[in-house]
Amino acid sequence: MSRILLGISFGLMMAALYLVFIYVPTEGTMGVVQRIFYFHVPVAWVSFLAFFVVFIGSILFLWKRDEKWDMLARSSAEIGILFTSLVLITGPIWAKPAWGVWWTWDARLTTTLIMWVIYVSYLMVRSFAVEESRGARFAAVVGIFGFVDIPITAVAITLWRTQHPRPVIFEGGLAPSMLLTLIVCVAAFTLLYIYLMLQAISLKQAEADLGKISQALRG
Amino acid sequence: MENSGYFFAAFAVVWAVLFAYVVLLVRRQVRLKQEIEALKGMLKEKSLPDQ
Fold first, then answer.
1. What gap in Å lies between CA A115 and CA A208, rounded to an integer?
2. Which residues of B touch A217 (CB under 8 A)?
3. To the nearest 5 percent, what fractions of chain B are helix, strand and coil?
4. Rounded to whole angstroms, how far apart are CA atoms A206 and B10?
5. What's residue B50's pLDDT?
6. What is the dihedral of CA B27, B31, B36, B42, to 10 degrees?
7. Rg, Å, chain B Cα set
8. Domain residue spans in chain A?
9. What does pTM read for this prediction?
10. B interface mutation test: which of A24, A27, A46, A90 has the most B CBs within 10 A?
């Protein structure tokens, strides 16, 4: 299953690279730097998806008290932070030639940074807790309340006047070739997220099992 | 191809970070394998205490 998924996501990633580098036309106003959009938007989408999974996993963990939901939430938080970091790196790389500055405290950028801080604290809460189970419960609370920032981040560009570009995708502002490239990139990064999730969860499961066996043997 | 440096920088960063995460997962996997080997050794010692 995991190998098939890796194969499909590798194939899609190759198709995405072909579309971004060769197929899609260069945008008239911004030039080649606009192509960053085809990485920036998919990684932003994956980070929203990852934190939604954290939200669901945290609710189910507090409700059922089953470790597997905590593992799901924790794995998704790790990958979500990774992808949000990519959003926060690729955004300024695009902003410098487009706006003339690396960073500005505009609503979308600020709420994205807050989102990153919330989920880093989600992981930190665990390491600070004396008991592992208590840390997992505290983290689940952060995972639920922290999710409030996700819809705010998503609609920040329509709620406030921001420097960040408006949602051209939903306003029909993309040429068909650009839309196709974006869809393939989103699909490729989503599959990559699912693959990384499967790997991260199975690793955490193995670590937990091994920890229990090791404790039983040493005790 | 004005500003192409920014484009290639963004592209390189995305792949470098994703690659680093995969390396991290592989390292965790290697550590788990070492731990399994250590446990196997421990089990062997426990099952053959007087030999």
1. 28
2. 39, 42-43, 46
3. 85, 0, 15
4. 35
5. 55
6. 160
7. 22
8. 2-23+33-213
9. 0.91
10. A90
Which residue in this structure is represented by tokens 């690729």? A90
**3-state secondary structure (DSSP) of residue A131:** coil
* Structure tokens, A78: 């790790």
What ranges do the domains of chain B cover? Answer: 20-51
Tens digits of per-residue pLDDT, B1-50? 677 899 999 999 999 999 999 999 989 988 988 888 888 888 888 777 65
Residue A184 tokens read as 């393939």
CA atoms within a 13 Å half-sphere pointing along the CA-CB vector of A193 = 28
Q: How many CA atoms lie within 13 A of A15 on its CB side?
A: 16
Three-class DSSP category at A101: coil
Residue A168 touches partner B, C-beta closer than 8 Å: no
